[in-house]
Amino acid sequence: MISLYAFMGAIEQGTAFGLMVLGVYLTFRVLDFPDLTVDGSLPLGAAVSAVAISNGYHPLVGMGIAVCAGFIAGAITGILNTKFKILHLLASILTMISLYSINIRIMGRPNMTLLGADTLIDQFIELSGLAPHFSTPILFALISGAALLALIWFLKTSFGLAMLATGDNPEMITSLGVNRDMMIIFGVGLSNGMVALSGALVAQNQGAADVNMGIGTIIAGLASVIIGETLFGKPNVTRAMLAALLGSIVYRIAIALALGVRLGDFAFTPSDLNLVTAALVVVALVSPQIKSGLLKRRAA
Amino acid sequence: MLKVEGAAKTFNPDSVNEVQALRGIDFKVEAGEFVTVIGSNGAGKSTFLNSVAGTFMLSGGSISIAGKDMTKWPEHKRAANLGRVFQDPLLGTCGSLSIEQNMALALKRGKRRGLGLGVKARDRKLFQAQLETLGLGLENRLADKVGLLSGGQRQALTMLMATMTRPDILLLDEHTAALDPKTGRKILDITDAVVRRDSLTTLMVTHNMNQAINMGDRLIMFHQGTIILDISGKEKKGLQVEDLLERFYTLRGEDVATDRMLFS
To answer: What is the ipTM of this complex?
Structure first.
């Protein structure tokens, strides 16, 4: 079992990355647009906010700039795909690779520490008077909860409804007068804005922004979405998004558990996590086929 | 209402796969006219309908709808003036959204979609009243996902969605071809009722000659990218399937003749 300390840590990580998971949900499930930009927009948000904070701006200002930067990155992926007809996966990889260089330019170096800087976490600890391992998860839960509510509201508006339909049936929504290209550009932008905000939270939590911190983001996001759907169901979009956020927390708890596993001399290291997560996603993606294959065989 | 001048469309120009789908179509439809469109496979009838809808741009010629030249307008911009029902019942509605969400999307056709609530309480009354006219019991299932409906029910819903904002032109592209005969007839009845009630300017593509003859006030036949037959008024009312078949066979005879001339 994991300690309370590790559990609170998992909640802290799960909610900080939860914003990223909501962003991934928006592209993968709502827009049906597999977007790998997130591997670059997460460190982008971290870099932008770290530079802003260490230059004395209020952390909220830094986070606001991070959201804008993420939105622009996502919108560029959307434009590459819709206006220049580049395959969505390739378009997002191009943006992601470019962001590696851009992130180093933004920070002036591959990583940047926030030690001693006045982060939102420090301010909230002061404000709430709670111990850090309680106040940080509460702060992140509040932020990701607010983002979840905003996204639920957004997808209930006329505009949001058109976005839901864009991913489901592009022909239909075009025939109803919606500019599908604009929807995709805005939607992928919005998604990456949330991912960048997630990156800004993670950087403040870890006390540093690093150009390599985004590796595997998309896989962790997908794993969280799938875990959420499997455990909590997806009868409608509202429930599915709540499930995705909860899935993010469960995923981090699962990782904390995995890191505690000892088999003789063998133990997982944090660098094994990408492999474990990728395997988890493969199993989740393949199991429906295996299940239906088994059912067919039984029926035959 | 619709004015098409010299419309031409060539797919894959300057390649071995070049297809001249439309070869200079001149065609006018008056407001309130109900035109049925027939022709064999590859005759250009669907290409014509899609070029009116703006699915692709013409290679030459012009299209104006309700007095506006829309030749260069993208599909989504023209959609404000057009209602469309596709052959595939899955194409006209969103399976993952509810009936009321689908109808709310259609209600905003061509309008700005802002951050107001997507499905408003007062719209539900309107949706229910509209669904009642179908007689399919859908008025009590507003919150049900459209994916749960049958193909016929979805196509009936698409008919409603295509016509609820009273489009300048209604485009029906073999919209009963994928349904079983009984459901297809039901959809045709709904089509006729809605078109007559709102005197909608309508283009209906069909494979079925009986449908083409029995419905609408004007019939056109496509062949090899041109309109070879345009029948309306009294002549249309007295038209028999045999008459149409005769025209088809005459044309086919000509085809054989030209082929023979080419290869001998």
So the answer is: 0.88
